[in-house]
Amino acid sequence: EILDRVLPTRRCDGNFQLFNSPLMRNSVTCSLCFDVYLHPVTTTCGHSFCRNCISTSFIYSKSCPLCRSPLLTDPQNLHTSVALESFVKNNFPVEYAQKVQDHRETLKFCDDRMPLLLVNSYAPFPQEEIAIHITEPRYILLVQRVLSNTTKEFCIIPYSQTPKGFIMHNTGSKVELVHSKALENGYEIHIRGISSVEVEDKVLADGYWHGKVKEYRDIAPTSNITLCHTKQNIHGIIERFKYLQKLYTHTNNPNLPQTTKTLFESDLPNSSTPEEWSTLCYYIGSLLPLTIKWRLELMKCERVYDRTQMLLHVLNRELI
């Protein structure tokens, strides 16, 4: 079909040169990105697209974007049309080279950044494990790409609804994908928090955000005075938690979720050494019905002393 539309013209040296007409340019243009083909594949219905373009479209719809015929094969499993790509490369070298360069820059730009999964008013603490159901097509694509990576890491960034609309917070969690299960309409993923992060910049690609993140440090007490005060805070946290544990176990507080009541029955982790204090704070924080404000404030504390001070404040005031 493509060759039938090509009109050859004779050059003065006797060789043939393809006539660069709009008709021929349209014949090698992907109808999804409106640029020349890059790694083109042809579907069972006979239409051609860039592999990346049709693969992204396949996440959203299992039909051909042009004729709506069912796509019986995942485009990632289709072979590249070598003849079509060679034709584009030989007759549109400038456009093809620019497309290749843009594609490489996009991959490099995204490789330097973490995929960001936006979650409504929630981000897990380090070592906290949660399960999430993924049904949005853009995040299905994110999960599939994370599963293909060696590290299986991405970031969860909370968003909140305000009178002016939705806002995306700059603090979130770097997480590890522990287990995934493919569902009919998406994935069920089990993740574990690794660290708290700050999003320094972000870019939108393929429907979801990619961000350059900086991990918050965990600074242990260095002076004897700070060490003593932090130890006192830890003692106060444990005593206050045990009091609340006893209170909520024997009373029916309508403001406390039933799942949190059950978690209050859990045993606290060891806290005999300064290295274990952050784990204790995050563990208790994961059991409390914290608002996203307090959760993020705890995650942003880099000094262990500040984190224990804030958690003690929450236990003494927020849950009375």
TrEMBL record:
A GO MF label: zinc ion binding
The UniProt record lists the keyword Lipid biosynthesis: no
Do the record's keywords include Zinc?
yes
**SUPFAM superfamilies referenced in this protein's UniProt entry, alphabetically:** PUA domain-like (SSF88697), RING/U-box (SSF57850)
Q: Which domain of life is it from?
A: Eukaryota
Q: What keywords does the record list, in alphabetical order?
A: Metal-binding, Zinc, Zinc-finger
Q: Where is the Lon N-terminal domain?
A: 114-319
UniProt-listed InterPro entries: Lon_prtase_N, Lon_prtase_N_sf, PUA-like_sf, Znf_RING, Znf_RING/FYVE/PHD, Znf_RING_CS
Q: Where is the RING-type domain?
A: 30-68
Listed Gene3D superfamilies: LON domain-like, Zinc/RING finger domain, C3HC4 (zinc finger)
Query: PANTHER family recorded for this chain?
Result: LON PEPTIDASE N-TERMINAL DOMAIN AND RING FINGER PROTEIN C14F5.10C, RING FINGER PROTEIN 127
User: What name is this protein filed under?
Assistant: RING-type domain-containing protein
